[in-house]
């Protein structure tokens, strides 16, 4: 009766429901393992994973997600096939950086069988985002760790989506113009600038973990730390070890997507946040896909031709103590 309804409402309120939207490269899989492990410790509740083409094509992304779920003993967690290409731009996968399979040739090198992997749902990722947002109205958050195509499609199909989602947490953007895919643009934004533009226009408040924060020296991981992270005998631990390439001669490494999941699991991981107005450049000859942020212009509306709305919460500093704990707990 009423008591049970109230109890259910209370329990739902205290939960931290998330969808992970991913292009399933190496650090995406690390991120999913980190999120699912946090779910096993009841810190977060992942209700769906949506796949998008980016680091790899969609079929490979689905295979990588399936293997990640299997490694985590989460074969029943629903995952959904999303966009097979960006809205306008041609798909340009990152094979030269993460291998053909996005996992540093995990499939080739380990001779792994793809049999017995869980199957994706039939529903399209964009529809799944809409349906889950309705089911967990006001309590569902989404983190995108790939191109923004699925979220752009979802908000185009359901313009009321922004009012139904609790948090939108985007890994992406080179907010200080230190690009990784062009001089000034970051991969997730540059891969599908039109989708990113739609998301930046339609969502009044987006949390952004930009490229520059991920690669900052103080957010990198030492080799001593990596030895711990990559030495666990659990299924998850072995999977993480097999996909993570450790390059000789470097004294530290950085990861992007699992840092984002740390912020999803625990908001206080974001130690310094700057609220700014930001947009995605679509037409620049040298700057298409750039995340253009107003850092200094005081009269945002008049001088900068902006809206005056600080739509971005840009995460500039992370609590690495908490990050490292979440990483290590994810492979136990
Ligand atoms: O630019 C960093 C992003 O692209 C991350 O999501 C990572 O997966 C990379 O390939
Ligand atoms: Ca990614």
How would you describe what is shown here?
The mean pLDDT is 94. The protein has 15 helices and 12 strands. The strands form 3 sheets. An 8-stranded mixed β-sheet has the order 3-2-1-4-5-6-12-9, with helices on both faces. A two-stranded antiparallel ribbon has the order 7-8. The chain has a two-stranded antiparallel ribbon with strand order 10-11. It is an alpha/beta fold. Helix 2 (26-40) packs parallel to helix 14 (257-265), helix 2 (26-40) crosses helix 15 (320-330) and helix 6 (125-135) crosses helix 7. Alpha-D-ribofuranose (RIB) binds at residues 25, 27-28, 55, 94, 145-146, 171, 180, 186-188, 211, 256-257.
Features of this protein?
two-stranded antiparallel sheet; 332 residues; binds alpha-D-ribofuranose; binds calcium ion
- From N to C, what is the helix and strand string? HEHEHEHHHEHHEHHEHEHHEHEEEEH
What is the 3D form?
globular
Point out poorly predicted stretches.
Answer: none
What share of the residues lie within helices? 25-40%
**β-sheet strand percentage:** 15-25%
Class derived from helix and strand content: alpha/beta
Strand order of the largest sheet: 3-2-1-4-5-6-12-9
- Note the main sheet: 8 strands, mixed
Q: What is the radius of gyration?
A: 19 Å
Write out the distinct hetero groups bound to the structure.
alpha-D-ribofuranose, calcium ion
- What's the N-to-C terminus distance? 40 Å
Please tell me the overall pLDDT.
Answer: 94
* Strand segment count: 12
> How large is the count of helical segments?
15
């Amino acid at each position: 009766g009423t008591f049970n309804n109230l109890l259910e409402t209370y329990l739902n309120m205290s939960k931290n429901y998330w969808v992970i939207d991913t292009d399933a490269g190496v650090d995406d899989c690390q991120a999913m393992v980190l999120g699912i492990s946090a779910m096993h410790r009841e810190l977060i509740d992942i209700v769906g994973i949506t796949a998008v083409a980016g680091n790899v094509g969609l079929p490979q992304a689905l295979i990588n997600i399936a293997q990640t779920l299997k490694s985590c003993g989460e074969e029943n967690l629903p995952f959904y096939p999303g966009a097979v290409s960006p809205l306008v731009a041609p798909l340009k996968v990152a094979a030269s950086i993460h291998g053909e399979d996005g996992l540093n040739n995990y499939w080739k090198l380990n001779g792994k069988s793809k049999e017995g992997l869980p199957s994706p749902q039939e529903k399209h990722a964009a529809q799944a985002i809409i349906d889950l947002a309705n089911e967990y109205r006001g309590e569902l958050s989404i983190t995108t760790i790939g191109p923004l195509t699925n979220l752009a499609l979802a908000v185009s199909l359901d313009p009321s989506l922004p009012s139904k989602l609790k948090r939108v947490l985007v890994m992406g953007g080179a907010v200080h113009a230190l690009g990784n895919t062009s001089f000034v643009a970051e991969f997730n934004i540059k891969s599908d600038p039109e989708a990113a533009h739609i998301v930046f226009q339609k969502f009044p408040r987006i949390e952004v973990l930009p490229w520059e924060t991920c690669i900052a020296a103080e957010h990198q991981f030492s080799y001593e730390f990596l030895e711990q992270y990559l030495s666990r005998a659990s299924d998850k631990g072995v999977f993480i070890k097999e996909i993570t390439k450790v390059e000789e001669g470097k004294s530290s490494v950085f990861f992007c997507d699992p840092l984002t999941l740390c912020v999803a699991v625990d908001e206080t991981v974001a130690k310094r946040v700057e609220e700014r107005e930001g947009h995605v450049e679509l037409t620049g000859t040298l700057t298409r896909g750039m995340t253009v942020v107003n850092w200094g212009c005081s009269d945002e509306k008049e001088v900068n031709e902006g809206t005056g709305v600080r739509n971005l919460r840009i995460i500039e500093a992370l609590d690495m103590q908490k990050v490292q704990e979440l990483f290590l707990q994810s492979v136990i």
